[in-house]
Structure prediction request, 213 residues.
Amino acid sequence: MRRPFLLLALLAAAPSVAAAQGRVRLEVTASTPANPAAPRQPQVRTPGILQDARWRETLQSSFPLRMRFRVEIWRVRTDWFDALERSFEWETVVVYEPLADQYAKTVLFGGSPRSFQRFESLQELERDLEKPNQVNMTPGGPGQYYFTASLQIRTLTDEEVEQLERFVQGEPQPDLPDQPSSLLKATRRLLLRFGGMPFAELEARSRTFTIER
Prediction:
């Protein structure tokens, strides 16, 4: 486990947030079925992720990029609030390995690694990150639906942020609960932003589509 003073050293060494040449976007769309009766699945893209100078410079300074995705299926209801049918979350972690001059990407489901890839260049990694990710879940029946997606991009892990919080408070703190409060989450975001480490949260929604009976 890293010590808090090491985290402050990391913050001091973090790259400055340069004016971005482009901004990362989050897009979610419904897949195009082969026939009208085929199920539609959410497709998620993050175009511009490494064209944004914040994330490119952070990655090339050997800080990992941690991208946490959440995708939801919503059913439209005209007589009440729309209903959340199901959701899925995963995390993509990208690192630069300076000794090998390579990039690595790990995809995690529920905190467990599911796939690992290496890339010889930043351009190769960028092409991979901009590919659509099709999520294997579909609406449960006929009706009107839409997909939503959210993305959180940061560098530090929950554990590292907790260590930094304890250090700033000036004394050791007990272990934090598994589900941090909204105030605690807001504090973390402020520490990341004003500590010099980039942080972003994005949301997107697809067009409404209809599944026939």
